[in-house]
């Protein structure tokens, strides 16, 4: 499972696979609705009587992006056909337009006619029921529509516009789809179809021997026919080549605020940092939702997806982007959370991109006992990330606008939702959404959230409230040190769980215990932090050629090995980087940065060929598992590189000063 190339602009997100087939089109929200749903929008070529879809194994691909942009840069070569295709895909930085440039290079010794076929397998609004596909003679285009979602397709070559078209029925009875009609190089020309439909259009060009020709193809997306007609005309009048160039220029400028001095990191690590910033942007809706992942292949495993906004993921991603200098990109996230906050002051499990509450498997009642179906860290970390953003950027208008409806309400909930007998937060689900109890990670995040709220209330002159929140946070800190530190093992427990009506320690080794220092409970130099992080580093290391760090001992999610001693779980990008972050924060000399630098290089090696990062890796062959790209993976890499650069600059300056003395 993976999406190898993603492009977007904050209201459209498009995913392409390793064959450069469109697999997902999300509009009008990033992550909602999906108008392809993981089906295959095929792309093929007919050359002098021979036909091939790009999924044929005979094609060899090089996948990448145009430097510092969200325009793809792909080379597809077919030696049997003696053809090489140079592909560039981009979504307009402002308008709902997708543009594809195909340079066809003839590797043969004779001039040849080439026909390019573009297939559209849409499931408009997430369903293939009631779609219509039709040829539109007014502007010689083909379009699909249902209700208020319209998709218009067009293009041209030196030889003219759309050569042929056809519409038809797909996945109904024996009908496979119109893509089968393309394989003889000629389309039937059926002008309309309704129901479960697809369409295919073609363009022709004649390519001289050793030469090349360019074909342009585009899709306009809108709410009605007039809107997509206007967008189609805009592309024709502006020329798709110029529009693609402007997309590259826009993203080049967008990246200029990113840190340029990244110490001694390799060029590959720097390139992944810049690409990761762009990838996070594609997964961020312009209205605030930061989506976890949009790889619909995950549907094959649990009939749900990652196209939701988890407030925890969103907060940590927002924190990373803020630290990297992209405060304006993530400000709407906090507004989103303020609007989504429940009347009681907590955030739910997850949300749809439009702000409605997402699906959940957390019950309100278990064995007759009522419980809140929440992960308390999701509320706390939003406040924590908001304060960190303010300390960096000093944009006081944002927290002021959120003071009553997010900061105060969220802080009140956190300060009251406490198990007073333990001086810890009441039980909730853990950050992995798997188990119910009182967790070290969650407790540390609540401490961080309460301290953030205390700082905000002090900032706005609400001193009495600030003192109360600070005292509450201090009480939780003492509860963590008293109840969750385990002297016998010399590290923190994962948490507390109830057995026989009493709280007992869950001593499973888990990477998330890094939260004790990340959220400010203890400094990185505290001996308890050091012992815990060393236990994570050593005990959760994946002892195969792949390497990396697992989530926790005997992690069952996509488990690939029963050899728990050597493979405690699959290596996760974020968990591996949490250990690197500790090493960065703890570094006293430049020599101490060698290990985390190696880890950053490890992440580079784990990426797909296009640079996209998965959630986790197969422990034996390093192939991606679960979803790709995972926004949290890219954001954590951004965070680690940012921290590395800051620490490298700090230590370099200190060592130069010491040498000068």
Automatic annotation (TrEMBL):
<protein>
    <submittedName>
        <fullName>Glycoside hydrolase family 15 protein</fullName>
    </submittedName>
</protein>
<dbReference type="InterPro" id="IPR008928">
    <property type="entry name" value="6-hairpin_glycosidase_sf"/>
</dbReference>
<dbReference type="Pfam" id="PF00723">
    <property type="entry name" value="Glyco_hydro_15"/>
</dbReference>
<dbReference type="GO" id="GO:0016787">
    <property type="term" value="F:hydrolase activity"/>
</dbReference>
<dbReference type="InterPro" id="IPR012341">
    <property type="entry name" value="6hp_glycosidase-like_sf"/>
</dbReference>
<keyword id="KW-0378">Hydrolase</keyword>
<dbReference type="InterPro" id="IPR011613">
    <property type="entry name" value="GH15-like"/>
</dbReference>
<feature type="domain" description="GH15-like">
    <location>
        <begin position="279"/>
        <end position="587"/>
    </location>
</feature>
């Amino acid at each position: 499972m993976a999406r190898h190339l993603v492009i977007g602009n904050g209201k459209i997100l498009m995913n392409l696979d390793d064959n450069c087939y469109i697999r997902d089109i999300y509009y009008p929200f990033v992550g909602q609705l999906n108008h392809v749903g993981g089906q295959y929008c095929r792309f093929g070529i007919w050359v002098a009587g021979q036909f091939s879809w790009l999924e044929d194994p005979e094609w060899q691909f090089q996948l990448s992006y145009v430097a510092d942009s969200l325009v793809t840069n792909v080379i597809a070569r077919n030696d049997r056909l003696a053809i090489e295709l140079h592909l560039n895909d981009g979504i307009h930085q402002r308008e709902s337009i997708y543009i594809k440039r195909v340079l066809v290079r003839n590797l043969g010794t004779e001039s040849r006619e080439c026909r390019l076929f573009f297939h559209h397998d849409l499931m408009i609004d997430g369903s293939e029921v009631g779609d219509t596909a039709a040829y539109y003679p007014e502007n010689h285009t083909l379009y699909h529509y249902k209700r208020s979602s319209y998709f218009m397709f067009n293009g041209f070559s030196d030889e003219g516009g759309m050569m042929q078209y056809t519409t038809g029925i797909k996945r109904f009875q024996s009908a496979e789809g119109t893509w089968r009609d393309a394989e003889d190089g000629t389309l039937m020309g059926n002008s309309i179809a309704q129901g479960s439909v697809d369409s295919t259009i073609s363009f022709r060009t004649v390519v001289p021997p050793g030469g090349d020709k360019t074909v342009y193809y585009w899709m306009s997306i809108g709410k009605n026919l007039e809107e997509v007609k206007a967008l189609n005309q805009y592309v024709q009048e502006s020329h798709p080549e110029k529009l693609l160039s402007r997309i590259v220029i826009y993203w080049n400028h967008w990246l200029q605020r990113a840190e340029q001095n990244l110490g001694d990191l390799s060029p590959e690590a720097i390139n992944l940092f810049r690409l990761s910033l762009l990838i996070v942007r594609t997964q961020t809706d312009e209205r605030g939702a930061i989506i976890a992942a949009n790889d619909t292949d995950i549907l094959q495993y649990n009939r749900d997806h990652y196209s939701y906004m988890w407030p925890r993921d969103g907060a940590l991603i927002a924190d990373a982007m803020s630290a990297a200098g992209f405060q304006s990109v993530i400000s709407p996230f906090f507004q989103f959370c303020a609007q989504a906050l429940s009347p009681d002051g907590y955030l739910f499990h997850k949300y749809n991109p439009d702000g409605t509450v997402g699906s959940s498997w957390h019950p309100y009642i278990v064995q007759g006992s009522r419980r809140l179906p929440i992960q308390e860290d999701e509320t706390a970390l939003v406040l924590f990330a908001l304060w960190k953003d303010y300390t960096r950027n000093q944009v006081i208008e944002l927290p002021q606008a959120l003071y009553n409806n997010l900061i105060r309400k969220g802080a009140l909930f956190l300060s009251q939702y406490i198990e007073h007998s333990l001086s810890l937060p009441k039980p909730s689900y853990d950050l992995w959404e798997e188990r119910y109890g009182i967790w070290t990670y969650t407790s540390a995040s609540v401490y961080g959230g309460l301290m953030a709220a205390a700082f905000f209330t002090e900032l706005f002159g609400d001193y009495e409230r600030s003192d109360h929140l600070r005292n509450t946070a201090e009480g939780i800190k003492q509860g963590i040190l008293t109840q969750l530190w385990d002297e016998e093992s010399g590290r923190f427990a994962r948490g507390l769980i109830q057995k026989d009506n009493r709280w007992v320690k869950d001593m499973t080794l888990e990477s998330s215990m890094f939260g004790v220092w990340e959220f400010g409970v203890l400094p990185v130099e505290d001996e308890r932090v050091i012992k815990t992080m060393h236990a994570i580093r050593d005990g959760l290391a994946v002892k195969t050629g792949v390497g990396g760090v697992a989530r926790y001992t005997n992690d069952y999610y996509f488990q690939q090995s029963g050899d728990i001693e050597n493979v405690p779980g699959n290596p996760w990008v974020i968990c591996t980087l949490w250990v690197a972050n500790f090493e960065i924060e703890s570094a006293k000399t430049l020599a101490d940065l060698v290990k985390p630098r190696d880890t950053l290089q490890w992440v580079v090696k784990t990426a797909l060929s296009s640079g996209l990062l998965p959630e986790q890796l197969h422990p034996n062959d390093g192939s991606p598992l679960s979803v790709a790209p995972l926004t949290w993976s890219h954001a954590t890499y951004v965070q680690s590189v940012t921290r590395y650069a800051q620490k490298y600059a700090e230590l370099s300056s200190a060592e130069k000063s010491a040498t000068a003395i």
